[in-house]
Records
---
Amino acid sequence: MPDRTRRTERARPAGPATPPTALRPLYERRRWPRDFADRLTAPLPGLRTLVRAARRGALRPSAATVGGTAGLPYAPGPLPHAPPGGIAVTWAGHASWVVRTGGLTVLTDPVWSTRILATPPRLTPVGVPWGDLPPVDAVVISHNHYDHLDLPTLRRLPRDTPLFVPAGLAAWCRRRGFARVTELDWWEAAELPAPGGGTVRFDFVPADHWSKRTLLDTCRSLWGGWVLTDPRGRRVYFAGDTGYGPFLLDIGARFGPVDIALLPIGAYDPPWLLGPVHTDPEAAVRACADVGARRMAPMHWATFLLSSEPPLEPLLRLRSAWRATGRPATELWDLPVGGSRVLGPDE
């Protein structure tokens, strides 16, 4: 991993008076800069930092941490009915969700593999058997890290499945046989037709993170989150993998109120290494408020041990932080892996 000692700053996106960028056509072929390193808001850790982390045992969970996985929530059930005009979300684990909105079934960062490259094996099984999925209408990818872009899982999909990916990632998808790929920059959007009329809109929004799959492609593709808007204007915000930043207020200004925010709460310890790119539970609760979300569903924990915090700590800290806000407990959808919630058309 290259050592970026110079802090790079990106301009803050335009404020709420500026509407989201006009729609882009589906599946268009585009040209991008060689890399997106200018979008970083903090330098990536270099060799010295990684050596320091390794000496402190911070790159992998300790034996005590690994032994503390009992009690992780896992309660798979059948996919619930998604009523017309409603939204149903099911947590398959990590950042993988089955989102049904506007009559479409959308997968987020689908990882159905038991093992992925350079990552410890799953702590909990996938919450939704692949054979139980309805036909998948679209897939959204937040960035290209192996625990979010899993090729063995993508290969289970028909090659004509629409993929929505960050700028710079379409060529990777097309080389693997996917023809219907839409790549977007931050604050760009595209739409898919929805059954019964209207469209579901896919807006790509900023995140504080980075991208890399090989030794030679650091930041060659972008990273971000997605806002899905159904024909009635109801919105699901999928944050992907992100640190906390001012862009969250911009998302709220442009898209709020958000009906459901799917926000990461794990992989934050040690904070001096992971804080810039992963939200801890308290930051996730602030992010929920910033984007104007009426409900929050946590993710990015209880699936892979990617950091040093005890496996159950993210959930305990999240619940404590949520109580401190005074918000109703019913607005926190702290689902087990495999769990589902449905938002009715009139809720």
Note: Residues 262 and 314 are 15 Å apart (CA to CA).
---
Amino acid sequence: MSNLNIDLLRSFLAVIENSSFTAAAQALGVRQSTVSGHIARLEQALGRSLLMRDTHHVAPTPDGQALIGFARDVLEAHDRLRAFFSPSGLRGRIRLGVSEDYTLSALAQVLARFADRHPSVDLQLTVGLSRALYQGYDAGELDVIFCKRRRGDPRGELAWAEHLIWAGRPGLIPDTAQPVPLVLHPPPSMNRTLALDALEAAGRSWRIACTSGSLMGLHAAVEAGLGIAPHSAKVMPPGLAPVPDAAGLPAIGEVEFVVLGPGRHHIVASALQETILASTAELQGVSDG
């Protein structure tokens, strides 16, 4: 089978959607003979009959029915590719929600590149805890979110997975005879839930030494020695270090970072999703946890 011209697939779908060669030609802005020629070339290239025709009706054959899904996927990908790399093709507003974990990472550079490439897109950024971002997305207040996967929610495209560890002031080892002093986000917080679940499962007592809604506030409290906190295993910010194994603390577990958007039909949102997913190595390399 030879390579297929994208215009052949476009004409095929136009005929299917309009149930008429004449209406398909009008929708595409070409002559009916052009559409007929495209269908003939497509059938020749595939070696299959794709349409059943009579004087009043056009319908797909079984092979034509099978082609519909493939053709839509190819055209959708083609159109998104052209729009993404067009210097002026993307326009509109996109509301992005980002987990606070990555606001101090290379995300700023990634978003700056997206804005430079698509200057006609208005990017509105919201920073918050992952669970709050899910709530905003489900309420229709955000178009795309980049955050930790919510438990039991299969949606979103996986960017990467990483382990959480216990972080504290360098050299700090919590007294095993005392409740573990914790520095945590207030609920709802996925890190908080995972940390408390791990301690409860291990039968280790704990106490909340400090609560802060700010990531910088948590780092400051941990650096001051008020307690320890669940943190990304990839990179420690200055002033923090992994708690030594001698503390006997349980493993916290793994979190998945996902990008969740409205789907491929939303070209602007899809372009932003692909930009983030293509930058995962960069984002992880300098992530602040």
Note: The first helix runs from residue 6 to 18.
---
Amino acid sequence: MKELVRPTRLAPGARVAVVAPSGPVPEQRLQAGLDVLRGWDLDPVVAPHVLDRHAEFGYLAGADADRAADLQSAWCDPAVDAVLCARGGYGAQRMTDLLDWEAMRAAGPKVFVGFSDITVLHEAFATRLGLATLHGPVAGGVDFIKNERAQEHLRATLLAPETVRTLTSGGRALVPGRARGVTLGGCLCLLAAERGTPHARPSARGGLLCLEDVGEETYRLDRYLTQLLRAGWLEGVRGVLLGSWEKCDSYDRVRPLLADRLGALGVPVVEEFGFGHCEGALTVPFGVVAELDADAGTLTLDEPALR
């Protein structure tokens, strides 16, 4: 697995486009998120269809073509320095194939931020654009709006990335050890669902795999992990970081499953690392070389997340 191209960090006054590739976002939460960005001396602009809601499928932020057009237009606009997703939910899989990846590649690298359903786009940006991305809070998310730690870690990653080279949040070793590799990952159910699609990587070989999920029963988490194991996708992975399992079964039920499915990989595994659908979630760069120390509960980046 190769290190990906790191975009340029943001500077005061940078223009940040907010898009909704997946589910709809309440206007009040969106406006609160925009206020946070303005408080960082950034210039947020909202894509035309962010507040749309699909006429038949209310879990989508408008039509697939409109969501794709918003993302592509923002990405290809030379005045835009970063693209932040408004929320996750569901819908990125429906619009990813509608993007003009050649045009987006020609537009050059810029910062991309999101998590949850945006896992689909993290994979696509890696495979189609060769671009490092940020697995971090969404602009209309409750955690981003209300949690100081989540805000500050994303702000520092965007504007002063050299200050957050080592990520730590009290995680502990499920399997001890140290490992080096290229970071990747996201929401477990989506990584499993992406197998066989044109924008997904063929494997996690050489990677430090970050996994988390939300609202899943333990047997379903078992199914996703077993699918990745049976498909050979986890062969050659260097290490695993486990984030939050919010609204899943209690962790004393989830933990034995994670140990059962991942322990046999023979690589370091750190648990409760504090990213994903949890309060105060860390921003984790994907596509960069880093060292995992499971015993210390740290992930140290070779270079800052952004240039």
Note: The radius of gyration is 18 Å.
